[in-house]
Write a structure and sequence with these properties.
about 0% strand, mainly alpha, globular, single chain, about 65% helix
């Protein structure tokens, strides 16, 4: 995958058909994003964390969280963010997890995302994060 998005769009404009375009550029287009269960399992090992501890700290209902970890459920962006808090991830690690699981990264100019970035930076709990969001009249992490 060496071509930029801009280059791919230019090639697309100049292509006679989508079929021709995709055949010529298949290797430069992501087929799918990483499955969250594999990514989370890797992160647990790398960070030396226990699944039960992460789930407890994330604030996600236990049964549902285990379904995420097993790959039976695909979490929402908010659930991924809650897992970032549960794993005590840095901002960079959280952004990477969002990116590789196909969700938009946190955007500092968005008020809610900015507050979440603050919470990740300060490594606060999900409960404390939701208190900040509540005080700002922003949607809670649920």
């Amino acid at each position: 995958m060496d071509k930029t998005t801009k280059e791919l769009l230019e090639l697309m404009k100049n292509s006679g058909s989508y079929d021709d375009y995709i055949k010529a550029n298949r290797n430069d287009i992501s087929q799918s994003f990483a499955k969250i269960d594999r990514t989370l399992s890797s992160m647990l090992v790398i960070k030396g964390l226990k699944k039960a501890d992460v789930i407890m700290k994330s604030g996600i209902e236990t049964h549902y969280a285990y379904q995420i970890f097993s790959g039976r459920k695909t979490p929402s962006r908010d659930k991924v963010i809650m897992l970032c808090f549960g794993m005590n991830l840095s901002v960079d690690e959280s952004q990477q997890l969002l990116k590789i699981t196909g969700y938009p990264q946190l955007y500092g100019k968005n008020e809610r995302d900015n507050a979440i970035l603050f919470g990740l930076t300060k490594r606060i709990s999900v409960i404390d994060m939701n208190n900040i969001l509540f005080d700002l009249s922003l949607e809670l992490l649920v």
